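Per reviewer request, we include the raw input and output of the structure prediction for the construct analysed in the revised manuscript.
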Amino acid sequence: MMDSLPMWTVIVTLLQSLVMVGLGHSGILFKNWRVEHVLALTGLEAVVIGQYLGLFYAPREAMMGDVARILYVHIPAAWLAMVVYLAAGTAGFLYLLT
């Protein structure tokens, strides 16, 4: 089994470097970016890293084996879909009220 400390060290380093390049004084590529852009890019990077960890880095489950790894992706995706549908429905309802 792989040790999880080096992976988390790499993830934290990537996130810190992305934020420092976007918010730092010498950020040439991100000179005109606002904080929202950096946060969105950081969130996207966190999602990609989470998908990788859930599908490839998570250990095998004792009874189901590799099949159980899809639950690490499917359940958060289902919750996110429910929250988005709720937000869209609420926004549509509020639009109809105005």
